[in-house]
Each structure stands twice: as C-alpha cells, then as structure tokens.
Amino acid sequence: GLAAYSLKVDAHGMDGADVSAYSPLQDVLAFGDGNVDDAEDAAVLVHEYGHALSHSALAFGNSGVERRALEEGFCDYLGGSYARHLSDYQWNRLFKWDGHNEFWDGRVLNTDKMYPTNLVGQMHKDGEIFSSALTQLENQTSRALVHELLLGSMPFFLPNQTMPAAAQIILETDSS
After folding, report:
1. Whole-number Å distance between alpha carbons of 156 and 133
2. What value does the CA radius of gyration of the chain take, rounded to a whole number of Å?
C-alpha cells in the first residue's frame, strides 16, 4: 500500500544539474542530466522511488541528521538490491552507470564504517553504514525477506530516529 498513487516523473529535471530528487510537495521524481543522465541508471530510479515510499509511509518524517542518513541508506539499499538482482557485476557499487567514474565517486553497499564511530554528519556518507547493514542482512537471509522487513518498518521510522532505533524497529517488525 506504500505510494499507491500516481507520481510524476521528469527524466530531464533539476535544470541540467547532476542530481536527482523526489519532491514530496509535488509528488514528482526528477532526474538530472549533468554528466551521465541520472534516469539512465536503474539504481537511481529505484533509489528516488524509495524516497517516495518513505514519504507515503510517514509524510515528512525524515527530519534530523541521522534520520536523513537512515533514509539515504535504505534508498541506497533498495537501488543496490535491485541492480544486484539484475547482475552481480560490481554488486557492491551503487550507481554503477551514474557514479564510479570521473564525474562522481558513487557510493558502496559494503563499507567497513561502523556506527557511531564513523558518523560524519553527512547523510549520504553516513547512509552507507545502514545500506551496508541491510545488504549484509540480505546476504545472510534473502532479498525478499529484507524488502518485506524494510517496507514493513518504514511507517515506524520517526523524525530524529537513530540507526540503533531503526534496527530495533526492523527486529520488532520481524517478530510481529
């Protein structure tokens, strides 16, 4: 039932910038054109759709530095899981088409960063901690199970939530 409504998509949005976003105020997924067109990378599409899923689960619930990192992490995980489902090639690299090139370093799904030691207060860098934990969980269980747990947990990811609190919610979702 998450995001069970129409979304507008602008494959050439963001005024040519090399960035993509979901706008909850307009219910639009906008993809940038800078360097590599973001809409050409399926992981970017799924990542941004993850933001729409999160917003539909709890509108405007992603306030707070660590909560934003959580959302970036689970959106990165969803994009990476989808891409890995298609091909195991460089499975640990997120945004293989749009990133990991001369334009942008991309992100990874198997960082060795640890919580809270390696938090830097930057949602994309900190999000790698959570996406890597979800990816490791998928490696140990199954893609279907992790998706079910994550999507079932989303309505309970509250503003200013921490990563340990989110992990506890996922455990409680599994128990129920």
Report:
1. 18
2. 15
